[in-house]
């Protein structure tokens, strides 16, 4: 079997799907690896590092994808600079593994189905113990939480830690983290390491212990419904709980220096948690870091991918933060893909085992045999074309 790794075509994407370490392990398992020339350069993995471990470098993208049984990517297939679409270049009937986010990339999914490509999306992998080592949402979410805090610290016109100096004492900044998934917990831990006083909330009260374990103080409301959704994600709140949560958020945001939002419903859609009235209640000089920007943003005023200031409050809404730390982001992402591939690779038979009774394959398969089989993606398409 031959695997192809193209250079990512998404704007400002610096990651690569396979680093040399994971590439070497796949070659040792009996898989042939080819990469597009320069695929790893932005992540500081030069072509020579891949050549040394036995991979082939192919300059022409059409030859690379057209001759591969399996394509590994970071993002969903997209348009290249020459106007060609990666899905159209892939061998018909081949396979793809990438973080597709299918409900956000419906056009790409339709093209994959047309090409009869069996596509697996890493963001749809079930969050089970067995699949933990394949979970790109977690590995990349850690980076999002870490970098988000650094962005907030840079923009805040205060120190994060308390300092006692000859000129007097400065008090530590107050940081409020909304959402305690992987990104949120890393944000809490990073803010605490920088010396801030950290509070956090989540609609899942069972995460209180996790928040406290990384140095945060839990605040929350008593909810009237179960907010635990499939796979450990948070579910959407009822209208009554939303109103009570909004009041709690408004009261607390007015008291802090930095608000970091990380909330996603089902790991994909960002609920609107901070409106204009909450932003205007915050102190001038305070900062909001909207880490839900990739899912549409947690703040109604966020300029996705940019920074704005409203009433002296700076709102940062960065997208694709893992690409800003491409070396380690690529290393972790490629280990996730490696674990997925080796879990289903039959070395003695030199084939990838498509066992459709396996819960991981069933959960993350988006297209198969020319059909779109991922339930949420089908619903999203039906909503557009009822």
What tags apply to this protein structure?
alpha/beta, seven-stranded mixed beta sheet, globular, 2 domains, 19 strands, Rossmann fold, eight-stranded mixed beta sheet, 386 residues
Q: Output the CATH homologous superfamily of the largest domain.
A: NAD(P)-binding Rossmann-like Domain
Tally of helical runs:
13
Instruction: Assign an overall shape.
Output: globular
- How many strands, which pairing sense, and closed or not: the largest β-sheet? 8 strands, mixed
Task: Work out the radius of gyration.
Answer: 22 Å
How many structural units, i.e. domains?
2
Using the 3D structure, state the CATH architecture of the largest domain: 3-Layer(aba) Sandwich
Helix amount = 25-40%
**CATH fold-level topology of the largest domain:** Rossmann fold
* Class per helix and strand makeup: alpha/beta
Strand content: 15-25%
Average pLDDT taken over every residue? 94
Name of the level-1 CATH class of the largest domain? Alpha Beta
């Amino acid at each position: 079997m031959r695997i192809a790794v193209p250079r990512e075509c998404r704007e400002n994407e610096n990651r690569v799907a396979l680093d040399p370490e994971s590439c070497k392990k796949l070659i040792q398992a009996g898989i042939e690896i080819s990469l597009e020339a320069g695929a790893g350069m932005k992540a500081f993995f030069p072509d020579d590092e891949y050549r040394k471990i036995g991979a082939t470098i192919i300059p022409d993208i059409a030859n690379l994808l057209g001759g591969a049984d399996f394509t590994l990517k970071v993002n969903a297939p997209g348009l290249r600079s020459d106007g060609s679409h990666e899905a159209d270049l892939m061998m018909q009937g081949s396979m793809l593994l990438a973080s597709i986010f299918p409900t956000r990339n419906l056009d790409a999914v339709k093209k994959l189905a047309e090409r009869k490509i069996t596509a697996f999306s890493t963001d749809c992998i079930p969050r089970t113990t067995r699949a933990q080592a394949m979970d790109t949402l977690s590995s990349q979410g850690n980076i999002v939480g870490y970098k988000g805090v650094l962005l907030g610290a840079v923009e805040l016109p205060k120190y994060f830690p308390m300092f006692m100096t000859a000129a007097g004492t400065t008090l530590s900044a107050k940081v409020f983290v909304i959402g305690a998934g992987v990104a949120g917990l890393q944000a809490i831990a990073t803010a605490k390491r920088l010396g801030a006083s950290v509070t956090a909330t989540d609609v899942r009260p069972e995460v209180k212990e996790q928040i406290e374990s990384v140095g945060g103080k839990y605040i929350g409301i008593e909810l009237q419904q179960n907010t635990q959704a499939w796979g450990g994600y948070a579910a959407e709140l009822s209208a009554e709980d939303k109103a009570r949560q909004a009041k709690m958020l408004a009261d607390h945001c007015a008291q802090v220096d930095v608000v970091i939002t990380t909330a996603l419903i089902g790991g994909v859609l960002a609920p609107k948690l901070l409106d204009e009235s909450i932003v205007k209640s915050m102190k001038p000089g305070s900062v909001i870091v909207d880490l839900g920007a990739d899912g549409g943003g947690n703040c109604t005023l966020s300029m996705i991918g940019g920074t704005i200031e409203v009433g002296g409050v700076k709102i940062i809404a960065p997208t694709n933060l893992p690409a800003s730390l491409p070396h380690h982001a690529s290393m972790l992402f490629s280990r996730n893909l490696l674990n997925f591939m080796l879990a289903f690779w039959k070395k003695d038979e030199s084939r990838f085992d498509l066992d459709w009774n396996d819960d991981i394959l069933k959960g993350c398969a988006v297209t198969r045999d020319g059909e779109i089989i991922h339930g949420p993606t089908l619903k999203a398409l039906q909503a557009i074309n009822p």
